[in-house]
Amino acid sequence: MVFLHPAPLTRLRATLGVVALAATTAVAQPSSRPMPGEFVVVDGRVDAGTYAGWKLFHTHCVGCHGVGAVGTGVAPNLVERIVNYTPRGFAVKVLTSYRIVPMSPDSGPPEDAAERDALLEQLMKRERSERGQPLMPAWDADTGVAPHVLDLYAYLNARAAGALGPGKPKLLPAR
Fold it and tell me: Does the pTM exceed 0.85?
């Protein structure tokens, strides 16, 4: 069975349409090198990016989010939550969202609604942290996480789509 992220499916359908119009017979094969943040799963084997996302998850995230990203008492189920994120939104959340920034007394009051919302979010994070509730760290400075955040997104999307189980995936053969 072959699973493709929705964007490659659109490209595949377009390709198949052109092939049909040209009246040639060809079998479309999915690329084992999808765009960053997309995944390819063929018979339980994954592309290199999705595999890197699995490795990243099991190196940095599994302790809080649990095996297979299904959540624990400490951190939420990412398989359910990933569907609410774009690749960009996910990257921002993982890399920067949980940094608690101290407020400076000379910074002055927020000037617009976006600044007020950002300040409120920072205050809420600080309050939760002071009450001993664990907060996910910002991963932007970790050289093992930042370059592979979209691989992590691909892995979690493959899990959410039901294309990939919780165990260690195997790599697709290199082309």
Answer: no
